[in-house]
Design brief:
CATH superfamily of the largest domain: Phosphoenolpyruvate-binding domains
Oligomer: single chain
CATH architecture of the largest domain: Alpha-Beta Barrel
Strand content: 5-15%
Length: about 575
């Protein structure tokens, strides 16, 4: 068994179809000074041809209405048009007497290495896009025909060291059962496209991918990240049964996609929304019966840029999401950067404790023009649907008031330009710091809603780095102290006729559903694919039972006892 990273759920069995992302070879010798102008013209022509090819891909994608691919290649178009690339290439030719090929390769490698050196996996994976573009330009320089449209003659499982977006975009979906790559992770563009298209995928196999040969029978488990090559008949049959079970489960859950999320006796209804990071996820959100977007992570838009994105760039992206989801609500979290998510152009000095440092709303306050740019873009997009704005990492009433003052200033600036916005946008905060949960009664008087971010709330409450495997056992949202904070937040919001949602990992946990319903949580936001199963689970729990489980939980002293009690109650009959 080979182990990788499951980046798109599902199980498939089929023959391996190897795809090679060939490396372009070229002459590395220096050019003569009299040939500098000629090489610069060759470089410009190759970039122009590459841009035309990308435009042709975008036209094809638009005809096929594949929005997830469209956005990725629009990003490629933006990169290929960046004058910095050609300017640096021209300097390499003029100053170092490099050939156009060598000049291009050096510039692309420089930018890609810069991205790969960053700690954030999102940037590391964006380097693959840069190399993809560089490979396209090099092929045009050398005169190698692009093989992106090479047909896959058989239905099978795609195996590649690195499946670039250009290669992926031209695959015949009807012939692709699953995808296996040596590189990549959950936030790579290929992983995103695979999830949107419902193709199981496993990434990050590294050199182990060499153990798969053309024509091998391969089992791909996108849930666990497992790859089994040429399985024995017994194992193959086990996975065939799993595929059949999953198909039956999908058919069963189909009935829940367009239903309300209610308890068994219809005494309690909750709202179920989805967490997203990209516009292309909206289709999956709607398909799975979400009642809106409970968390739109805007930071990923910033992560795909080399500098602060301007107002128009942000406006177009926000408009796209708000329009696609209309009339359903979209909760937009303002920039939540810092801690484990850093950007090279932010200029944040080294911090010994970045999770307790200049991040999220604190960074926004420290960069007022950047914050106002985002708020103006959001307000402009608000007229295209139903938007709610949410501020992250709020720790005090003072911060809420300051953030609201920024919104007032953004509105004033738009009014000066006579630009429209929705003046009735609901304003909320993420409750992810214990001080906010404790002071929820006061904060509830300042905002329209709360959304509990359990990932950070647990981390800050129990002083446990959730990424540290050595102390992973301490990180548990059933910790009685965490449950007390959640209870306090929900009760405070209801006292002032406000509502509370949850967008952390706990919201999508079937194990936690009964307690959260019993506590009175109003909205659950989770991954889109988890919604039908959550609705089914909730329909089998009576509200009275949820309340009873909740009451018992607050009588217990440890997370382990609470978890054991929940499992027992879940099996007990009414």
């Amino acid at each position: 068994m080979l182990r990788g990273l499951g980046v798109s759920p599902g199980i498939e069995i089929g023959k391996a179809f190897m795809i090679s992302n060939s490396v372009v070879t070229y002459d590395h010798c220096c050019i003569k000074q009299e040939n500098v102008s000629e090489e610069i013209e060759r470089l410009k022509a190759a970039f122009k041809t590459s841009e035309e090819q990308i435009n042709m891909i975008i036209e094809k994608i638009d005809m096929e209405k594949e929005t997830e691919k469209h956005q990725i290649f629009m990003a490629h178009l933006e990169i290929i048009r960046d004058p910095v690339l050609t300017e640096k290439g021209e300097k390499n030719i003029s100053n170092k007497f490099m050939s156009a090929e060598q000049a291009t390769a050096e510039v692309i490698n420089e930018f890609a290495l810069m991205m790969e050196a960053m700690e954030d996996p999102v940037f590391v994976e964006r380097a693959a896009d840069i190399r993809d573009i560089g490979n396209r330009v090099l092929k045009n320089l050398v005169g190698i025909p692009l093989d992106e449209d090479a047909p896959i003659h058989q239905t099978g499982i795609i195996i590649a060291d690195d499946l670039t977006p250009s290669m992926f975009a031209n695959l015949d979906r009807s012939k692709v059962l699953a995808i296996v790559t040596g590189t990549g992770g959950k936030t790579s563009h290929v992983a995103i496209m695979a999830r949107c298209m419902g193709i199981p995928a496993v990434a990050g196999l590294g050199d182990n991918i060499r153990q798969i040969a053309q024509g091998d029978l391969v089992i791909v488990d996108g849930y666990k990240g497992h790859i089994i090559v040429n399985p024995e008949s017994g194992i193959k049959n086990q996975y065939l049964e799993k595929i059949q079970e999953k198909a039956a489960e999908d058919r069963r859950l189909e009935a829940y996609k367009n239903t309300c999320a209610v308890t068994s006796c219809k005494l309690r209804r909750v709202e179920v929304s989805a967490n997203i990071a990209f516009a292309e996820e909206c289709e999956e959100v709607l398909k799975n019966g979400a009642e809106g977007v409970g968390l739109y992570r805007t930071e990923f838009l910033y992560m795909d840029q080399k500098d602060w994105p301007d107002e128009e760039t942000q406006f177009q992206e926000y408009k796209k999401i708000i329009s696609k989801m209309a009339p359903l609500p979209v909760i937009v979290r303002t920039l939540d950067i810092g801690g484990d998510k850093n950007l090279p152009y932010m200029g944040i000095p080294h911090e010994d404790n970045p999770f307790l440092g200049l991040r999220a709303i604190r960074l926004c306050f420290a960069r007022p023009e950047m914050f106002l740019t985002q708020l103006r873009a959001l307000l402009r997009a608000s007229v295209f649907g139903k938007m709610r704005i949410m501020f992250p990492m709020i720790s005090s009433v003072e911060e809420v008031r300051k953030a609201k003052e920024f919104i007032r200033e953004a509105k004033r600036q738009l009014e000066e330009k006579q630009q429209a916005y929705d003046d009735n946008i609901e304003i909320g905060i993420m409750v992810e710091i214990p001080s906010a949960a404790i002071a929820a009664d006061t904060l509830a008087q300042e905002v329209d809603f709360f959304s509990i971010g359990t990932n950070d709330l647990v981390q800050y409450t129990v002083a446990c780095d959730r990424m540290n495997k050595e102390i992973a056992s301490l990180y548990d949202y059933f910790n009685p102290a965490v449950l007390m904070l959640i209870k306090n937040v929900i009760e405070a919001s209801h006292k002032y006729c406000k509502w509370t949602g949850m967008c952390g990992e706990m919201a999508g946990s079937l194990e936690a559903a009964a307690i959260l319903v019993g506590l009175g949580l109003d909205e659950f936001s989770m991954s889109a694919s988890a919604i039908p199963r959550f609705k089914e689970h909730l329909s089998k729990i009576s509200y009275s039972k949820a309340v009873r489980i909740t009451e018992k939980a607050f009588e217990l002293a440890t997370a382990g006892e609470i978890r054991e009690m929940i499992n027992e109650e879940a099996l007990a009959h009414e």
